[in-house]
Amino acid sequence: YGKRLYDECASTSRHIAYGFGDGPTGRSRYFLRGRIVGQGQSGLRLHMELAGLSWEIKSPLVGEFNAYNLPGAPAMALGLGFTPAHFQALAGFGGVPGRPERATEKEPFTIFVASAHTPAALEKALSALKPAASSRILPVLGAGGHRPTPNPPPLGPAPPPYSAALRPPPR
Asked: Model confidence over 15-65: pLDDT tens digits?
């Protein structure tokens, strides 16, 4: 759908598509291509290319889904006339609360808070954190008090094989 929308808007504005694969057919000049060159506990390192320009972005965010979202801001900014030199501001962007959010800085371990209320969301959050883990992942499952339903479903399945879980006692 994204490629179709890009092609439909091509004649009405200066726009730049972005992604990690091939760009929209016939419009590669305006396709910001990203590539993950590093990821770990300190975050992501991405290589970006557009119309003969290339640069790197460092971010404290973790997970492949964040890597796919990170080029969106530079694509929009380039369309507005900014240059890659402006994108270093992303190095300080800590992300959206609960998507996984770093909760420690100067500890010998790293804690992330991730809002995952379904088994599928929990699996995605743990999978996203796996490249940032130096050893094992210990998910602690519990409700943060902001759930909209009075009788929520269980907070998750048994943890995946690369983690162990600490579950609070039922209320």
From this structure: 788 888 776 665 545 788 999 999 888 889 999 998 888 999 998 888 888
CB 60 within 8 A of CB 80: no
The residues, ordered by sequence, that sit 6+ positions from 30 with a Cβ below 8 Å of its Cβ are 14, 15, 16, 17, 23, 50, 51
Whole-angstrom Cα distance, residue 118 to residue 164? 18
Pairing of strands 31-40, 17-19: parallel
Higher pLDDT, 3 or 116: 116
Above 90 in pLDDT, residue 89?
no
Residues, the chain: 171
Contact 163, 126 (CB under 8 A): yes
Residue range 103-118: average pLDDT? 76
Report the C-alpha dihedral over residues 112, 117, 119, 125, rounded to 10 degrees. -20
Q: Give the bridge partners for 86, in sequence order.
A: none
Tell me the whole-structure pTM to 2 decimals: 0.69
The H or E element spanning position 43 is strand 43-50
User: By the 8 A CB rule, do 57 and 91 touch?
Assistant: yes
2 C-beta neighbours (distance < 10 Å), count = 10
- Answer whether 79's CB lies under 8 Å from 14's CB: yes
